[in-house]
Structures are given as C-alpha cells and as structure tokens.
Design a protein that fits this description.
The complex is a heterodimer. Chain A is mainly β. Chain A is built from one helix and 15 strands. In chain A, the strands form three sheets. Chain A has a five-stranded antiparallel beta sheet with strand order 1-7-8-12-11, with no helix packed on it. Chain A has a five-stranded antiparallel beta sheet with strand order 2-6-5-4-3, with no helix packed on it. Chain B is mainly alpha-helical. Classes of the chains: A mainly beta, B mainly alpha.
Chain lengths: 231, 166
C-alpha cells in the first residue's frame, strides 16, 4: 500500500480500487463472453441521468429501458465511430407498432452508456412534430429542423445530430467561434440526417441549416448556438 | 495468441538464443497484467490487445538493454494507450469492433462508466494510482508530468467522481 498524497476519502478510494480490480479481472485470455442481461431500475430522464442528453422538442428524444442492451456493438450500424476514445453507433430508429407510417428516424448508441446487461440509454432523432400518440409526423417547415436536433455529452465532447427538412440542403457548423464548415449528411430510408462530432474542449458551437445557400432563421424557441455542458 | 506463436517471429532479430526463453517467460508472466492495465486505460479490449502486442514488439529488439522489463513495458503500455486513444479520435472506425466485458455488478459498472468518462489524463492517473498502486511521484515520472500536476489531476478526478456518484 502506498502513502496517499491527496485528500483521503476512504470510501471512494475503496470503491475505485474494487471497481478497477473487478473490471481488470474481466480481461483474460479467453474469448469475450456477453454478460447475462439484468434489470436496472430507477433511472429516469432528468437528474438521475448519468449522461447529459439534450433532446429538444419535436423529433428528438431520449430512449430508456426497460429493454436491455444485449449486444454491443449493435447490428447493422449506419455510422460508427469514436469520440475521445468512446465508441458510438448510429442505427435505424425503433419501429413503434402504433406509429405505423411514421419515420423511425435514427438512434445514437454511445457505448459508455449502453453496457451489455444495462437498460438502453440512447438518443434518437426524426424530423417532424409529434402526434398526441407520441408518433413523429414527418411534417413541418425548414425551420422545424431546429426542433429535430439534439446531442449527447461524451467525455468532454459532444455528439450532436439532427434530422433535416427535405428543403434543407446544407448543414454548417462552427466550433468556439471558428471558421464555419459544412457537416456531412447521409440518407436513411429516404430522409436526410447528420452527425457532428464536437471535440473535447469545445465550449460553444453553432449549427445552421441552409436552404439554397441561405441560413434558415431558427424559430423563436430555438437557438443556433449550443453550449457544451461541463462537469 | 499463445506466447510461443507470437514470439516465434522474433527469432530472426539480433539476440542470443539464451534471451529468447527469458522474453517468452516475461511475456507469459506480464501479458495479462499489461492487457488489463491497457484495457483500463483505453476502455477497449481491441485497442488493449494492440497496445500490449506493440509494447512487446518494440521491447524485443532492445531486450538486452532493458534493466527492468516490467517497468519498461508498463511505460510503453501507458504511452501506447495514449497514442491509441488519439488515433481512434482522429479516424472514425467504420467496422464495428469486438464486444467488451462488464463486471455485472451495478455499483462497479456505474463507477467504471464514470471513470471512463474522465478526461484521459485524469483517467490515467486514477488507474495508475488505484490499480497499479503507484505513488504520485512515480506516476509523474511515468507520465513526464510534475508530481504537483499529477496531484492536481487526481484531485480534480476525485472531485468529479465524488460529485457524479453523490
């Protein structure tokens, strides 16, 4: 045992030691096995959420259990990558039986928040306002694109994504007031989406949606500028 | 990968026959501990495997000059893990990597998720201090950072973890 040279917190010290030992012990020379799914209850959107998910109105949402993560990486990702060492995948959004005909959108799975055996903790996006049944309509104007974006804090960075109105033909972003750049978009089931990696250390970023080269002004209840949550 | 298979490929290097069994023995003894350390630092088993293989590969031709293989390999793993993270950050991976293990103990999984969310520098200090049980001065030497900076890294990491766990 070494001499501790910082503020002593025996409980936290012990917890960290146990955690790291236990996690390290899962690494062996055998093929990786998948943990048996188990129930984790009591988590809800809000204060108990361990990631900062920032869904906005209309077609952006946070998806929680009660289904369990049974497979990482997920099957058939549309896009996969890593931000600050944290892996993530974009997959087809879930088809909800009562919402037949609504766009299923896309769903973002960040590995650190979706460990095998835990409840799903994902963020999704699709364009359009909601019906009373909670289904996405796919209807709206170009400015409603600002209602259909959202993001997830990953480490000290952020993954920001959105679903575009059909007339929006360009997404431009800038980081910390720097030079603007065009964000890559992709097609999925006939709709257009984008995913922006906001690198760690970024404090503020902006996202503009353009039609024929001209930025679409955001609605009164939305902003083009976003602050990366800290802590 | 069995040690004998992996190390067969180094016999063409310029070293005496007497050194090879020593390297193989070191590989057998240290591969798993180093793999675990690399996993804690990178959060990815796939990357950890690459890191440990690279550490041994770079050490093998220098073996006669290495006084303390354990310390040398640990330093290599720490440095390679950092590079691995940066490499992953720069290049989006389009092929899904292999699944990774969890402890299946909710309290520990929660703590691990928070440790993984720490900035890389803070996570390295936490892992080296609590898993490798290294004093801060030694961590400073390993990371080429002043001990006072390492102490500050650890204090910030613990404050963040304490807040997230409360």
């Amino acid at each position: 045992m070494t001499t501790r040279q910082h503020d002593v917190d025996p409980d936290l010290d012990e917890r960290l030691r146990r955690t790291l030992e236990a996690v390290a012990a899962t690494v062996d020379d055998e093929p990786v096995t998948v943990a048996k799914p188990r129930r984790r209850r009591g988590r809800a959107i809000g204060a108990g959420v361990t990631i900062a998910a920032l869904p906005l109105a209309a077609g952006a949402w946070v998806q929680f259990g009660p289904e369990y993560v049974d497979r990482i990486p997920p099957a058939n990702p549309i896009v996969s990558g890593s931000l600050d060492g944290e892996r993530y995948w974009l997959v087809d959004g879930r088809d909800i039986p009562r919402c037949a005909g609504s766009p299923s959108g896309i769903e973002l799975i960040v590995e650190e928040d979706n460990l095998v055996g835990q409840e799903w903790n994902t963020t999704g996006a699709a364009f359009g306002s909601y019906t009373e049944d909670g289904c996405v309509t796919g209807r709206g104007g170009p400015a409603d694109t600002y209602h259909s974006d959202g993001g997830v804090v990953v480490s000290d960075g952020m993954l920001w994504m959105g679903a575009l109105h059909s007339e929006v033909d360009e997404v431009r972003a800038s980081l910390d007031g720097g030079e603007g750049f065009e964000v890559d978009t992709f097609q999925h089931e006939g709709d257009t989406y984008y995913l922006l990696e906001v690198p760690p250390g970024t404090a503020v970023f902006t996202v503009d949606y353009l039609v024929d080269g001209r930025p679409v002004p955001p609605p009164a209840d939305e902003r083009r500028e976003h602050v990366v949550p800290t802590g | 990968m069995p040690a004998s298979d992996d190390l067969t490929g180094v016999t063409h290097l310029d070293m005496s026959d007497s050194e090879l069994p020593v390297i193989e023995e070191t590989y057998r003894d240290l591969r798993l501990p180093l793999l675990r350390l690399a996993f804690l630092l990178t959060g990815s088993r796939e990357t950890a495997e690459d890191v440990v293989q690279s550490a041994f590969a770079s050490a093998t031709p220098r073996w006669p000059e290495i006084d303390d293989p354990r310390a040398y390999l640990r330093r290599s793993v720490v440095n390679l893990a950092k590079d691995g993270q940066r490499r992953e950050f720069r290049h989006r991976r389009l092929l899904p990597p292999a699944p990774e293990p969890v402890t299946a103990i909710p309290e520990l999984d929660e703590t691990w998720a928070l440790v993984r969310r720490l900035p890389l520098t803070q996570r390295r200090v936490v892992v080296l201090h609590y898993y490798e049980d290294l004093p801060l001065v030694e961590i400073g030497l390993l990371l080429d950072r002043p001990a006072s900076t390492v102490r500050s890294d650890l204090r910030r990491a613990l404050a963040r973890l304490r807040k997230d766990l409360s």
